């Protein structure tokens, strides 16, 4: 475990039956770094992201977050997860609660804040995503883009050091994508460590410190946006970029 | 908000539970002053030995030969008694399992039974008689070849029929109560019925449209009180002393004559037999039965919900053992017919436990396990139907399994379950009628008892059926209202 890194992944393997989806991944993420993961569907990038907070159990290898190895059964995964925010493709807001309750649930239940503090914090994050007036609304009354921004606020309310985004704009109508990306850009500017699985190449180009190209369960190529987008070294990368950029 | 509702609900459940348990604990103590209390199994349709009044009890002026005898003996020998009216078969099983201390139900003393039970001094001689429909041409057993005859299972009439089946070539149909058995003869399903002489005589005197064709009682046998072999010797002695005293003082003959000679017991034969009249006469009994049905339903549903939620939660856990336990329990209790489960708990378990299971408790346990298994399957399905993303979102925030389940999954799951649960509650209400088989005096059993006195099967079952429809309609309305409020 290297103290310089916020997230350190070592030789991570994951299979579903005989199908190996991750074939020994190594990746280090420094504090404040924004890493965008791109690649064809089925290349393993989402599975990799879900291994970082143990939503998927790795078969072997190590994932260190803040110095805790999540593969170690001695480590209390619930504690580690409190420091890893996650945003899902389908938002996954709790439909049985209001927007405000969605955000205050975890901080209050986990004893991080009193009810009053949590409410204050919730309004702060709702301001950040521009949805203060929706605090008492039911999630089902919001548009997809609004729901995703609430989901981001919900994750932020736990004051995580790392944020994981799993294709956060894939399920959105095109006109909603901009608002969500704007929120993410602001987060990046404020120095949040972020790992983002995305198909938004423009966002990756503009915001990422590093772009990681996944292919067939492995990292084929990585580097600065310029390196990967403008001077791709690997044939697979070129093919992929040809397909997504020249539509 | 949500969690507040649950808290209120759970508090309410615990309160009801506490009341019921408290009541169960307090009730038996009221009976036990300084005199010992014995429990007697008896027959609910066995005139003239036992005659229940319109409230289903024996507190009327003519409670029957054996009840009057017991009443006198109890007073003379200083003990208290509690009566459990059941079918005769139920009486015997209850005695064997120790649910009761003795059986007083026109029980004839046979050699076979003597091996199994102890008997008191006989107080009556009883023989089997054959009766046919009023317009039947059958006059002797020789005419029964190929025909169907009936007797109550476990009675000496049944033994007699079995013994002579080859000789006369009839088919035997067994019943649990005289009333249904006689009715079967009346409507022509069975050619002849074999029952205890005095029972038949009394019934015919009260208006049953049968006639007795036997001249002399067949297999005349003495009637006595039965006890578990070698147990309750103290009670046996008290009963024997009492019978001796009754014989000596001539009271025994008085009591028996009252029911078999003359017209002293003639009941209110001119009573109102319209539906309104029947409702009026049997109002108290019906209300008591209805209340017992409601009580069983409510307490049963509460415990079945608790059991079902436990099964459901075990069933969705990421633990093979928990999952296995849940599926096996659901499989077993859904697989056993409820009536078998009731018999097992009420009459089977006491053999192993060594003490009796109170009737109400046995009923509630039966409902808990049977309905609980169905509710378990519903709860499991409801939780599983909640989007997997909800689990992931909750867990990724750092919420532990239990908190994620309670705060996020359960409220959504229960909303999905409500229609199935309501359906199960209605089934539970109807299923309480099955508990009449072990003698719980709920609505159905109350109906059986009332009909055994007035023989108004059609009208009474109509009344009972309508009562069930009414309470089920009310329950449906209530649940629709709750569902609307929840939406």
TrEMBL record, chain A:
Q: Which Pfam families match?
A: ABC_tran
> Record's PROSITE patterns?
ABC_TRANSPORTER_1, ABC_TRANSPORTER_2
Q: Name one GO molecular function term.
A: ATP hydrolysis activity
Official protein name in the record: ABC superfamily ATP binding cassette transporter, ABC protein
Q: Which SMART domains match?
A: AAA
Task: Name the keywords, alphabetized.
Answer: ATP-binding, Nucleotide-binding, Transport
Q: Source species, please?
A: Limosilactobacillus frumenti DSM 13145
Q: Which InterPro entries match?
A: AAA+_ATPase, ABC_ATPase_HisP-typ, ABC_transporter-like_ATP-bd, ABC_transporter-like_CS, MetN_ABC_transporter-like, P-loop_NTPase
Q: Which domain of life is it from?
A: Bacteria
ABC transporter domain residues are: 7-241
State the taxonomy lineage: Bacteria, Bacillati, Bacillota, Bacilli, Lactobacillales
From TrEMBL, chain B:
Enumerate the UniProt keywords alphabetically. Answer: Cell membrane, Membrane, Transmembrane, Transmembrane helix, Transport
Q: Which SMART domains match?
A: PBPb (SM00062), PBPe (SM00079)
Q: Report the PROSITE patterns cross-referenced here.
A: ABC_TM1
Give the main localization category: membrane
* GO CC, one annotated term: ATP-binding cassette (ABC) transporter complex
- Give the top-rank taxon of the lineage listed in the UniProt record for this protein: Bacteria
Can you say where in the cell this protein is located? Cell membrane
Q: Which GO terms describe its biological process?
A: amino acid transport
Pfam entry (one): BPD_transp_1
The membrane-topology field of this record reads: Multi-pass membrane protein
Q: Where is the signal peptide?
A: none
* UniProt domain ABC transmembrane type-1: residue ranges: 290-479
Instruction: Mark the transmembrane ranges.
Output: 290-316, 328-349, 460-482
Query: In the UniProt record, does the keyword Transmembrane helix occur?
Result: yes
Q: Which InterPro entries match?
A: AA_ABC_transptr_permease_3TM, ArtM/GltK/GlnP/TcyL/YhdX-like, Iontro_rcpt_C, MetI-like, MetI-like_sf, Solute-binding_3/MltF_N
Recorded GO molecular functions are: ligand-gated monoatomic ion channel activity
Q: Which family does it belong to?
A: Belongs to the binding-protein-dependent transport system permease family.
Known PANTHER family for this protein?
A: ABC TRANSPORTER MEMBRANE SPANNING PERMEASE-GLUTAMINE TRANSPORT, MEMBRANE COMPONENT OF AMINO ACID ABC TRANSPORTER
Q: What is this protein called?
A: Polar amino acid ABC transporter, inner membrane subunit
Q: Whose protein is this, by species? A: Limosilactobacillus frumenti DSM 13145
